[in-house]
Amino acid sequence: MIYSDYTLTSPLSDLDHATAPLLAVTILWHPDPARIGEQFVGGTGSDTIELNRYAPLFMRPGSEGLPLGHGGISRQPLRLVRDAHDTLTLALPASSMVVEVGGRVVKDAVRLTAAQVAEGQVLTLGRAVVLCLHWMDRLPKHNPVPGLHGVGSASIGVRDQLRMVAPSGLPVLLLGETGTGKEIAARAIHALSSRAAAPLVTVNMAALGEATAAAELFGVEAGAHAGEPAARDGVFAQADRATLFLDEIGNAPAAVQPMLLRVLEGGDYRPVGAAQDRRSSARVVAASDQDLEAAVFNQALLHRLEGFVIRMPPLRTRREDIGVLIVDLLGQQEGNAGLPAALVAELACWDWPGNVRQLSHVLQRAVLMLGEGVVPTLDDLVRTQRQPPEEAPAPPAPRGEAADAAPRRRPSALSDGDVLDAMAAHDWNIQAAAQALRISRPSLYKLLEDHPVIRRAETIPENDIARAMEACGGDVERCAATLKTPAEALRRRWRLLRPG
């Protein structure tokens, strides 16, 4: 057991529950953006949840509950059956609603182990609403912290810890992978503390050279170096009565680590070239993406920094937060556009090695493409930066028995009949047909353009579309099958022809 297990962080971050976890269903994406992040939280034992258009009720803490409500969701229930071993079985509804697990269409019941549910399972209903099935070890609560968004247990727990430690004045060590929001957490600690009116002083320890680190941290006495005619304060002096954030503390030069230990223990430090000590009351918050116990790092300094340890969870362990993060990140961008549900499902299934920072960059690219009228896939936004699309690995398999690990196919190996059959079998949805054919969506677009039977929606006369829509009762998928054109493009064309 590591040293930090004995710090004040333990009661909140490592809860040891005597009972089973709560089964939660979180809305990752919904045609009504205000619904994103709402949750239904079930019980802890064997139970069956019936999920349809009218039940159960999804809510935020302190608000009234509402059903999913969307017309694309069946009135017949999809049953989530939990047994005594926390295995979850998804029994499909007796309806034509398309159900996807992990971004792939499923036709039969899906069985998920407790461990698979713990990873977060992405469930798409009617190609319109994206949900996440996951466990929770605490009830939802409203505990806002500036800049830190999330509705799952991990996010709630981190915010609880930040709110608890911020007023205490203890040194805080933030641990986590790159991009998990350690700097945002440091700013939140400062903003929630009694020092909020003072500045937050930040220094990147990895940017300090061996020769200049002591001067940058503790200052320089006048005349200590050639070219230093006047005294210069270091960051500990600048952060007196304020908060000092030492980012990438694992990269602190070895020579200054004992000096850091001294100032943390008693507040005393000595500027370079000075004859007397000075004092600083700076409150230190440090962060690292390294295993500081395994690294060549001053262990006594580590123990001083571990006054309170907060571990920032990676994004892949909190898929239930993807929806609210997307809403927040898109809200920060100019000209943002709504994302297709299929893309959100792909984003939620991705493991995000760069965490929230990488998600932010990917969303920026997605907004640019959507602004040009191009609907991107995850392949367009992530994988194709590394290798050509047809050589890229298949998307991550869904976390359950619906997984299909078949390799990609070459578009040139597909006949016109293969393409037509796949489109017809998947309600003329390009993403679903591409997955069934095991090719990328851009490759399927090229095959559709050259197809002798399948039509481009923008070339179909308006009167033909109007007659087909009337005959199909406004059902876009049925109309797409009648006209032999992709449903997404037809829906966009119909909205232009019949605005409002």
Helix and strand arrangement:
Blueprint: H1 10-13, E1 22-29, E2 39-41, E3 47-51, E4 78-82, E5 88-91, E6 99-101, E7 104-105, E8 110-112, H2 114-118, E9 121-125, E10 129-136, H3 153-165, E11 172-175, H4 182-191, E12 200-204, H5 213-218, H6 235-238, E13 243-247, H7 257-266, E14 268-269, E15 278-279, E16 283-288, H8 299-305, E17 308-311, H9 322-331, H10 341-349, H11 355-371, H12 378-381, H13 416-425, H14 430-437, H15 441-449, H16 462-471, H17 476-483, H18 487-497
Parallel strand pairs: 11-16, 11-17, 12-13, 13-16
Antiparallel strand pairs: 1-2, 1-10, 3-4, 4-5, 5-8, 6-7, 6-9, 9-10, 14-15
User: Total number of β-strand segments?
Assistant: 17
Largest sheet: 6 strands, antiparallel
Helix content percent band: 25-40%
**Low-pLDDT sequence parts:** 1-18, 384-406
Strand order within the widest beta sheet: 2-1-10-9-6-7
Number of helices: 18
* Structural class estimated from helices and strands: alpha+beta
Domain Sigma-54 factor interaction: 148-368
Organism: Massilia yuzhufengensis
GO molecular function: ATP binding; sequence-specific DNA binding
Region (Disordered): 386-414
